[in-house]
Write a structure and sequence with these properties.
By secondary structure, the chain is α+β, with helices and mostly antiparallel strands. The protein contains 4 helices and 17 strands. The strands form 5 sheets. It has a 5-stranded mixed beta sheet, with no helix packed on it. Strands 3-4-5-6 form a 4-stranded antiparallel beta sheet, with no helix packed on it. A hairpin with a 4-residue loop joins β12 and β13. The longest helix is centred in the first third of the chain and has 35 residues. The termini are far apart.
C-alpha cells in the first residue's frame, strides 16, 4: 500500500512539474517572439543608377540618442525606436519633460511612413539620400502632425556616423543631418554615360537626365560624377545661358551650338530667331549648311525665304 501510494503521489507531482515547465517554456517563447517582432521598413534605395543600403545603421538593442540643450532625441534606422518613450512605432522621438509621462514627449514621425528621396545635400560624388517620416504626434490645438526629414550625406570616412539636429523649418517639420559611409553607394555606380557636347544645349539635348552642363568649367559631364564638385550647373536645356553665337565662324559650328542661326546673306552666326530685316535667309539645321562652308555663297542664288542644301 505504501509503495502504491508513493507511486501515485510521485506521478501526480511529476505531471504537475511537466505542466509547469511546459507553461514556462510557452511563456518564454511568447516573450521572445513579442520582443523580437518590430515593424521594420526597407532601407534600400536606388537613385540615378546608384543603389544605397542603410540597413547596417539599424540597431536592435539601442537607439541613437542625443540632446539639444534640455531636449532628448532618440532615433533608429530601418525600424522604430527601441525606447518606448514615444510608443512602439516612432521613427524619431523627442522628450522635453521626463517628469511628465503623458505630455512631456512627442513622436516626430511614424516609422512605417519612411519615404526615400534624392539627396538635398549631396556628399562625395553627389551621393546620399533623404528619408522623410510623417504621421507624428499633433500638438494640442493643432491640425498638422509633426514630421521629420533626415539628410544622409555620403562621407566615406565617417563610418556609421551620428545624426545631428539641423532645425525646425517650417514649424513642426524637424530637420536632421547624418554623415555616414552608409549614405554612399552600396554598389558602385554604373559607368558614366557618354556626356559630350561643347555647348549647354548640345550637352543636354539627348542626355535623358544623366548629364549636366557645368557653368564653372564650361563642360559636359555625368550627373553621378560631377554633380557635387560643380557648384553652378544646368540640368534643363531651357535654362542654358544664351550662346555666344557671334564667335562661330562656320555654319555647322553655328547651328550646332544651339540657339543660333547661320545667316546666308552675311555668312555670319546670329542668335535665334534672327531678325528678318537683318538677315532674310537663315539656316537653323546643319543639313542645310553650304557644303564646303563657302563664305561667298549669297542668298541671291536661291529663292528668298528658302533654306537650300548646296552641293558643290
Amino acid at each position: 500500500w505504501e509503495a502504491t501510494c508513493g507511486k501515485l503521489i510521485s506521478g501526480v507531482f511529476s505531471r504537475r512539474r511537466e505542466r509547469q515547465m511546459t507553461s514556462q517554456w510557452m511563456l518564454v517563447v511568447l516573450l521572445f517572439s513579442t520582443a523580437s517582432f518590430v515593424q521594420a521598413y526597407s532601407c534600400t534605395y536606388s537613385w540615378n543608377g546608384v543603389i544605397y543600403d542603410a540597413s547596417p545603421l539599424a540597431n536592435s538593442t539601442a537607439d541613437y540618442h542625443f540632446q539639444i540643450q534640455t531636449v532628448d532625441f532618440w532615433t533608429n534606422m530601418c525600424r522604430p525606436t527601441v525606447t518606448q518613450v514615444c510608443g512602439s512605432s516612432s521613427a524619431m522621438c523627442q522628450q522635453w519633460d521626463p517628469k511628465n509621462p503623458l505630455n512631456g514627449h512627442a513622436s516626430l514621425g511614424n516609422a512605417s511612413t519612411a519615404t526615400f528621396n534624392p539627396p538635398s545635400i549631396p556628399g562625395e560624388n553627389g551621393q546620399g539620400f533623404t528619408v522623410q517620416f510623417t504621421g507624428g504626434d499633433k500638438p494640442p490645438q493643432q491640425s498638422s502632425p509633426r514630421t521629420t526629414e533626415i539628410d544622409f550625406i555620403c562621407d566615406s570616412s565617417a563610418g556609421v556616423g551620428f545624426p545631428s539636429y539641423a532645425g525646425e523649418q517650417p514649424a513642426l517639420h524637424y530637420n536632421f543631418q547624418w554623415r555616414s559611409a552608409y549614405a554612399c553607394a552600396a554598389q558602385p555606380p554604373p559607368p558614366p554615360p557618354s556626356c559630350v557636347g561643347t555647348s549647354c544645349g548640345g550637352c543636354l539635348a539627348n542626355s535623358t537626365g544623366q548629364c549636366v552642363w557645368c557653368l564653372d568649367s564650361g563642360s559636359c559631364c555625368s550627373m553621378a560624377y560631377c554633380y557635387s564638385p560643380c557648384k553652378n550647373r544646368v540640368t534643363n536645356p531651357q535654362y542654358c545661358p544664351a550662346p555666344a553665337c557671334s564667335a562661330q565662324a562656320t555654319c555647322a559650328g553655328c547651328v550646332g551650338l544651339g540657339g543660333c542661326s547661320w545667316c546666308l546673306d552675311t555668312a555670319s552666326c546670329l542668335a535665334s530667331p534672327a531678325n528678318p530685316s537683318v538677315c532674310p535667309d537663315t539656316v537653323s539645321n546643319v543639313t542645310y549648311c553650304p557644303k564646303g562652308e563657302h563664305k561667298d555663297f549669297k542668298a541671291s542664288k536661291i529663292p528668298a525665304g528658302k533654306h537650300v542644301k548646296v552641293v558643290n
